[in-house]
Protein backbone atom coordinates (compact mmCIF):
# COMPACT_ATOMS: atom_id res chain seq x y z
CA UNK A 1 0.00 0.00 0.00
CA UNK A 2 1.51 3.29 -1.03
CA UNK A 3 1.42 6.53 0.89
CA UNK A 4 -1.51 7.68 -1.24
CA UNK A 5 -3.76 5.03 0.31
CA UNK A 6 -3.91 6.34 3.84
CA UNK A 7 -6.52 8.89 4.78
CA UNK A 8 -8.36 11.48 2.76
CA UNK A 9 -6.57 14.27 0.98
CA UNK A 10 -7.02 16.38 4.10
CA UNK A 11 -7.49 19.72 2.46
CA UNK A 12 -10.00 22.05 4.04
CA UNK A 13 -12.53 23.48 1.62
CA UNK A 14 -12.51 27.19 0.88
CA UNK A 15 -14.93 29.00 3.25
CA UNK A 16 -16.54 30.75 0.27
CA UNK A 17 -17.32 27.35 -1.27
CA UNK A 18 -18.77 26.16 2.03
CA UNK A 19 -20.98 29.23 2.18
CA UNK A 20 -22.43 28.34 -1.22
CA UNK A 21 -23.10 24.74 -0.15
CA UNK A 22 -24.65 25.88 3.13
CA UNK A 23 -26.89 28.39 1.38
CA UNK A 24 -28.15 25.81 -1.09
CA UNK A 25 -28.63 23.19 1.66
CA UNK A 26 -30.91 25.61 3.50
CA UNK A 27 -33.38 25.59 0.60
CA UNK A 28 -36.56 23.59 0.13
CA UNK A 29 -35.60 20.03 -0.69
CA UNK A 30 -37.60 17.15 -2.04
CA UNK A 31 -40.41 15.86 0.19
CA UNK A 32 -39.70 12.32 1.44
CA UNK A 33 -42.46 9.74 1.45
CA UNK A 34 -43.03 6.02 1.84
CA UNK A 35 -44.28 4.30 -1.30
CA UNK A 36 -47.49 2.50 -0.26
CA UNK A 37 -46.90 -0.32 -2.77
CA UNK A 38 -43.20 -1.08 -2.31
CA UNK A 39 -42.70 0.30 1.21
CA UNK A 40 -39.51 2.00 0.07
CA UNK A 41 -38.44 5.56 0.66
CA UNK A 42 -39.07 7.88 -2.25
CA UNK A 43 -39.79 11.53 -2.97
CA UNK A 44 -43.14 13.15 -3.69
CA UNK A 45 -43.35 13.93 -7.40
CA UNK A 46 -42.71 16.05 -9.25
CA UNK A 47 -39.19 16.73 -8.05
CA UNK A 48 -37.68 19.92 -9.43
CA UNK A 49 -34.04 20.50 -10.38
CA UNK A 50 -33.85 23.02 -7.53
CA UNK A 51 -34.99 20.40 -5.03
CA UNK A 52 -32.39 17.95 -6.35
CA UNK A 53 -29.72 20.61 -5.92
CA UNK A 54 -30.80 21.06 -2.28
CA UNK A 55 -30.69 17.27 -1.73
CA UNK A 56 -27.21 17.15 -3.26
CA UNK A 57 -25.98 20.03 -1.09
CA UNK A 58 -27.32 18.26 2.01
CA UNK A 59 -25.45 15.10 0.97
CA UNK A 60 -22.29 17.22 0.64
CA UNK A 61 -22.82 18.46 4.21
CA UNK A 62 -23.20 14.86 5.41
CA UNK A 63 -20.23 13.54 3.46
CA UNK A 64 -17.71 16.28 4.15
CA UNK A 65 -18.22 16.35 7.92
CA UNK A 66 -17.48 13.78 10.62
CA UNK A 67 -17.83 10.86 10.74
CA UNK A 68 -17.98 10.38 6.96
CA UNK A 69 -15.09 12.68 6.06
CA UNK A 70 -12.68 10.42 7.97
CA UNK A 71 -13.61 7.65 5.57
CA UNK A 72 -12.84 9.47 2.35
CA UNK A 73 -9.93 7.61 0.78
CA UNK A 74 -7.75 7.59 -2.28
CA UNK A 75 -7.53 4.28 -4.12
CA UNK A 76 -4.45 2.25 -3.14
CA UNK A 77 -3.74 1.27 -6.74
CA UNK A 78 -0.67 3.12 -7.96
CA UNK A 79 -2.23 3.97 -11.32
CA UNK A 80 -5.65 5.04 -10.04
CA UNK A 81 -6.53 8.46 -8.71
CA UNK A 82 -10.14 7.84 -7.73
CA UNK A 83 -11.40 9.05 -4.37
CA UNK A 84 -14.15 7.11 -2.64
CA UNK A 85 -16.16 6.93 0.58
CA UNK A 86 -15.26 3.79 2.53
CA UNK A 87 -18.61 2.46 3.73
CA UNK A 88 -17.23 -0.92 4.82
CA UNK A 89 -17.95 -1.82 8.44
CA UNK A 90 -14.29 -2.14 9.51
CA UNK A 91 -13.29 0.91 7.47
CA UNK A 92 -10.29 -0.76 5.85
CA UNK A 93 -11.29 -0.74 2.20
CA UNK A 94 -8.24 -0.18 0.00
CA UNK A 95 -9.52 0.20 -3.54
CA UNK A 96 -12.08 2.30 -5.35
CA UNK A 97 -13.63 -0.91 -6.65
CA UNK A 98 -12.86 -4.56 -5.96
CA UNK A 99 -13.93 -5.43 -9.52
CA UNK A 100 -11.47 -2.93 -10.97
CA UNK A 101 -8.41 -2.08 -8.88
CA UNK A 102 -8.81 -4.79 -6.20
CA UNK A 103 -8.74 -7.64 -8.69
CA UNK A 104 -5.91 -6.08 -10.67
CA UNK A 105 -3.88 -5.80 -7.49
CA UNK A 106 -4.55 -9.42 -6.54
CA UNK A 107 -3.62 -10.66 -10.02
CA UNK A 108 -0.42 -8.60 -9.86
CA UNK A 109 0.35 -10.07 -6.41
CA UNK A 110 -0.09 -13.63 -7.70
CA UNK A 111 2.13 -12.87 -10.70
CA UNK A 112 4.83 -11.28 -8.51
CA UNK A 113 4.87 -14.38 -6.27
CA UNK A 114 5.11 -16.66 -9.30
CA UNK A 115 1.76 -18.33 -8.74
CA UNK A 116 0.63 -20.26 -11.81
CA UNK A 117 -3.05 -20.51 -10.85
ZN1 LIG B 1 -8.89 2.46 -8.12
What does this protein structure show overall?
This is Zinc finger CGNR domain-containing protein. It comes from Phytohabitans suffuscus. The chain is an alpha+beta fold. A hairpin with a 6-residue loop joins strand 1 and strand 2. The relative contact order is 0.14. It has helices at 15-25, 49-63, 98-113, and strands at residues 32-34, 41-43, 72-74, 83-85. Helix content is 36%, strand content 10%. The chain folds into two domains: 10-65, no CATH class; 73-117, no CATH class. It contains three helices and four strands; from the N terminus they run αββαββα. The strands form two sheets. A two-stranded antiparallel ribbon has the order 1-2. The chain has a two-stranded antiparallel ribbon with strand order 3-4. The radius of gyration is 19 Å and the shape is extended.
> Which series of helices and strands comes N to C?
HEEHEEH
Tell me the Rg in angstroms.
19 Å
Structural class: alpha+beta
Number of β-strand runs:
4
Mean pLDDT: 88
Count of discrete structural domains: 2
What characterizes the major β-sheet? 2 strands, antiparallel
Q: List the strand order in the largest sheet.
A: 1-2
Estimate percent helicity.
Answer: 25-40%
Low-pLDDT residue intervals, each spanning 5 or more residues: 1-8
Task: Estimate the strand proportion.
Answer: 5-15%
Distance between the termini: 23 Å
Question: Helix count?
Answer: 3
Q: What would you call the shape?
A: extended
What compounds sit in this structure? Answer: zinc ion
Pfam family, one: zf-CGNR
Organism: Phytohabitans suffuscus
InterPro entries: ABATE, ABATE_dom_sf, Znf_CGNR
Protein name: Zinc finger CGNR domain-containing protein
Amino acid sequence: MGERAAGHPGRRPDPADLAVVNEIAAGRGPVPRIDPVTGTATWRRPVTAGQLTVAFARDVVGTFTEPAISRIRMCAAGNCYLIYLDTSRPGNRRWCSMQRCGNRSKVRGHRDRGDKS
